[in-house]
Amino acid sequence: MSMMTLRGGKRRFETAAVVVIASVVLAAAAMLSGCPDASLLGLVADADEDPSETNPETYTVSYNANGASGGTLPLQSSHSYDDEVWVSEAGELRGPVLGFGITQRFLQWNTQADAGGSGYLPFEAFGMPDHDVTLYAIWTTDGGFISKIGPAGGLVFFEHAESNGDWRFLEAAPPETEWTGRPWSEFTTLVDGTEIGIGAGEPNTQAIVGAMGDGDYAAKLCDDLSHGGYSDWFLPSIDELNLMYHNVQWTFAPAFYWSSSEENEGLARAQKFNDGSRHPESKTNAYRVRAARAF
């Protein structure tokens, strides 16, 4: 991301050096002419001044929602000239509405509303200039639904051309809901009847939980999840997991993730998100788990 152009230490040093040399030359000329000028000699002292010491004012950094449909903006902050300013997160700010409860995705903060200025990601820093700064939220602008924000705050990774009965879209749970180091099952058992296709994740999950009951395993964790005001999460099938890999991979770790698609009594299907490969793996292996939901 580009950074605001600020007057740095090197430039101040070069400016000071030029002023000092000029002052010495002018002062020497004045002395030779018998007319020393105290103001000329005073330039040497002025060259050593730190601009931040001669500019005691503070300036504000504020945030503009720039068309957001809801949520809360980061708080305004005050800074002195040349302070290091850390850019805030977008938090729960929601972008412009596309439809079906889906909103545009946040991209960056920018010093211009049309994204034509200096852009910053959350937690990036810039040097405070000698004026107030407004950072505008920049959102995706295309009309497609894939990789946009779903009703529960996750990313949409699949859309049917038409509503498929009770649902049209699939949404991946946000990264902060993810589990690490969990088995597909805590013991060897055959669930039987799970499928691999799109739309199979929810019935697969119900079948697994019905067969295995309580426990700290992938399908049960997803079935129990409540996030973003929704509790209809499930462990995705292997084909649904593959759609996550292809459409919203950047929100996943480069590691194995469990699907709800069983292979046999001892194996279930998992997908590796660093290369997209899919393998039957031992059900007791400890892999990552990410839930999905349909709406």
How much is the radius of gyration in Å?
29 Å
Shape: elongated
Strand content: 25-35%
Number of strands: 17
What structural class do helix, strand and pairing data support?
alpha+beta
Show unreliable segments. 1-33, 35-47
Separation of termini? 36 Å
**Strand order of the biggest β-sheet:** 2-1-9-6-7
SSE arrangement, N to C: HHHEEEEEEEEEEEEHHHEEEEE
Q: In CATH terms, what is the fold-level topology of the largest domain? A: Mannose-Binding Protein A, Chain A
Mean pLDDT: 86
The second-level CATH architecture of the largest domain is Roll
Structural domain tally = 3
Question: What is the CATH class designation of the largest domain?
Answer: Alpha Beta
Describe the overall structure:
The strands form six sheets. A five-stranded mixed β-sheet has the order 2-1-9-6-7, with no helix packed on it. A three-stranded antiparallel β-sheet has the order 10-11-17, covered by helices on one side. The protein has helices at residues 9-32, 38-47, 51-54, 201-212, 218-224, 238-248, and strands at residues 58-64, 77-80, 84-86, 97-99, 102-103, 106-110, 119-120, 125-127, 133-139, 155-164, 167-172, 179-182, 256-262, 267-272, 278-282, 287-289, 292-294. It folds into three domains: 9-49; 58-139, Sandwich (Immunoglobulin-like); 155-294, Mannose-Binding Protein A, Chain A (Roll). The two termini are 36 Å apart. The protein is an alpha+beta fold and 295 residues long. It is elongated, with a radius of gyration of 29 Å. β13 (256-262) and β14 form a beta hairpin. α1 runs antiparallel to α2 (38-47) and α4 crosses α5 (218-224). The protein has six helices and 17 strands. The longest helix is centred in the N-terminal third of the chain and has 24 residues, at 9-32.
